[in-house]
Write a structure and sequence with these properties.
CATH topology of the largest domain: 2-enoyl-CoA Hydratase, Chain A, domain 1
CATH architecture of the largest domain: Alpha-Beta Complex
Structural class: alpha/beta
Strand content: 15-25%
Mean pLDDT: 96
Distance between the termini: 33 Å
Order of helices and strands: EEHEEHEEHEEHHEHEHHHH
Length: 260
């Protein structure tokens, strides 16, 4: 199947959701292939950053409403199992990965698709992109981490309204609210995301992985717990070859050559 495209570059990979006729809506089989692509990037020592984006006019329209996820003669579908086994696992893998994930949102990001975007470490969106919590429109509740991401990114009041009303917001509003890092011109989305991937692929890999660990723990930690974690991770970074190279490069007034 070609619903997940993988482009390998020097130091990074691009994973492309590719069901253009359905605005890249996902199903269990497609998500299984996406998980495999994430695992393959993680296992490749030459890969040090990942771009996740969509093909065509959309980033991801969420879960496809096919016969396997709609009520039928046999009763309601097991949406708990579907979400936990597939959608939620994508978020877990992205957040737990050593690799920085850049999400390049090129169109509509709806339902679980919005959460896949917000699970990225750095999120760029084309100005024409929209984010919508579409669950309420069909009698469902947010999943795939939406209630966590929105509460932490835009605050309780906005998060509740987005979930309960199902209104779409544009990329510039998402940037203004702090939901994403930056809204960019549509024509620049690909080049700007690639520039970030190249930059991250040349950054100190151990430090990037530690930063991901640090920020993942922050919402549940007290200040003192976070200070302890920062001290431990700083100690690890201080023993790394990349730190030694960074200091040498600073002293020699040259760009560092981090080995990862």
């Amino acid at each position: 199947m070609d619903d997940i495209l993988v482009e390998s570059r020097d130091g990074w990979r691009r994973l492309i959701l590719n069901r253009q006729a359905r605005l890249n809506a996902v199903n269990a089989e497609m998500l299984t292939r996406l998980l495999a692509a994430i695992d393959a990037a993680e296992a490749d020592p030459g890969c040090r950053a990942v771009i996740l984006t969509g093909a065509g006019r959309g980033f991801c329209a969420g879960q496809e409403l096919g016969p396997d996820v709609t009520p039928g003669a046999d009763g309601p579908p097991d949406l708990e199992k579907l979400a936990d086994t597939h959608h939620h696992e994508v978020v877990r893998r992205m957040r737990a990965s050593r690799l920085p994930f850049i999400c390049a949102v090129n169109g509509v990001a709806a339902g679980a698709g919005a959460s896949f975007a917000l699970a990225g470490d750095i999120v760029l969106a084309a100005r024409s992109a929209t984010f919508v919590q579409a669950f309420i429109r069909i009698g469902l509740v947010p999943d795939t981490g939406a209630s966590f991401f929105l509460t932490h990114l835009v605050g309780d009041a906005r998060a509740r309204a987005l979930a309960m009303l199902g209104d779409a917001i544009d990329a510039e509003t998402a940037e203004r609210w702090g939901m994403i890092w930056k809204a960019v011109d549509d024509a620049s989305l690909g080049s700007e995301s690639e520039t970030l991937a190249v930059r991250l692929s040349k950054a100190p890999a151990e430090a990037l992985a530690a930063i991901k660990t640090m920020f993942a723990a922050a919402p549940g930690n007290t200040l003192h717990q976070q200070l302890d974690l920062e001290a431990r991770l700083q100690g690890q970074a201080g023993r790394s070859a990349d730190f030694a190279e960074g200091v040498r490069a600073f002293q020699e007034k040259r760009p560092p050559r981090f080995g990862g």
